[in-house]
Amino acid sequence: MKGVGMAKRGFFAELNYQAQQAEKRQRQQQAAAGRAHDAAVRASDRARKAAERARLTAQRANEADRKAAEKEAKRLHVEAREAEVEEMNSALVSTYEEIDRLLETTLEVDDYVDLETLKAPAVHPDFAPGALAEPIRPPLAPALRNAPIYREPEAPKGLAGAFGGKKKHATAIEVAKAEHEKSTRAHQSYVVERTAEHDRAMEKHAAAEQDRLAKLAKAQERYQAECQQREVDAQARNEELTKFINDLAFDVPTAIEEYVGIVLSNSVYPDAFPVEHDHSFDLSTRELTMRVFVPEPSVLPTVKEYRYVKAKDEIVATQLTAKAQKDRYSAAVHETALRTLDEIFEADRAGKIQSIALTVGVNRVAPATGLPETVPLVQVAAGRDTFSQFNLADVVPVETLKHLGGALSKNPFDLLPADTGRGVRQQGK
Fold first, then answer.
1. CA angle at residue 265 from 259 to 269, to 5 degrees?
2. CA within 20 to 30 Å of 305's CA: 63, 228, 283, 334, which one?
3. Which residues are within 8 A (CB) of 292 and not within 5 positions of it... i.e. 6 or more apart?
4. 156-180 in b/e burial notation, b at 16+ Cβ within 10 A?
5. Are 261 and 13 in contact (CB under 8 A)?
């Protein structure tokens, strides 16, 4: 026997599912910020850091202070481990609360989906060209050395001028002028060379800047094209949504199935208890055939609490009793069944679905054959008029399912199949 595969979500159901998953992650992050175990995380971190500081202090302390420092380090280590245990237990309690409130969670919200709110304009990200937006800095003008200055040798004075000094002075002047001319020519060559280098750098800069502007223009063209495509896609989605709304109004079966998919995509389950759905609608009977797939019992956590054993410096887990595990899993299965019925009937304000034939089961690999199979744990049929009279806030889910004539597994935890031999429509007769 092959297991039943998961139906592919419709376009709008998938969009809505992804949005709900993102919102779920955001809610989890926001909730985590306010939960008590966050304080334990911070305390654990502080204690660990303090323990490390004390350990380092103990290493550096002199012999007289070493014992006291080591004692303090041990105390802080114990505090850190105890804070770690508190953090783990807080997270465990939060997980169990989510699983134990599957039905209560959906009763807190209205499951109706206003399809008009799914229409949305195109959302464009800001144009982000990165480095292309910044002009390339031009090269700085060269800092040139000053031109050489001619300084004429000082004329001889007194007796020095009378005894051949003038001739020597004239010779010195000729030498000084020659050296100045040589220095001037060298400086002129230096200026020409540096100026030519700067001109080449400016030409290179101009080419690079022109290339940047060309690339920026192309990036702008791509951005505009992407914006136009987003506008086209948004318009197409909104037009398709308008058609979907019209089809739903005229009872097109595929539209009804799509709407149910959107409703179910809003039904966000805990990470520790993931749920999948598959469904089909029969317009002639106005009945929705619903299949819900819950995780195997082994997926759920089994730890009751964690505790720190100081003598062994170990964190050990105390396991839940077998009865507690069985009771939690069975309750989750039964609450999932009622939650699904409630979500669909409540969301279907127009009353297009008059009855639901529901099966809740587990997809697994059969231990006897190694082949995939679906183990039914709940099979029940519910009419809109009957179900709408229940006050689900005060019911015992297993009793409600029995009241509806459902076939229930006698031991969901051990994956004992429900007796579905009579078929869902024969139950309760």
1. 145
2. 334
3. 275, 276, 277, 336, 337, 340, 358, 359, 360, 361
4. beeeeeeeeeeeebeeeeeeeeeee
5. yes
For residue 30, the tally of other CB atoms under 10 A from its CB is 9
Reference 398, options 419, 377, 384, 416; nearest CA is: 377
Give yes or no for a contact between 338 and 321, defined as CB atoms under 8 angstroms apart.
no
24: Cβ contacts below 8 Å, ≥ 6 apart: 268
- Burial status of residue 183 (CB atoms within 10 A of its CB: 0-12, 13-18, 19 or more): middle
- List, for residues 244-279, the tens digit of each pLDDT value: 999 999 999 999 999 999 999 989 899 999 999 999
Q: Shortest CA distance to 414 belongs to which of 315, 305, 319, 333?
A: 333
Contact criterion met (CB below 8 Å) for 12 and 117: no
First to last CA, the chain: 28
pLDDT tens digits, 382-399:
999 999 999 999 999 999
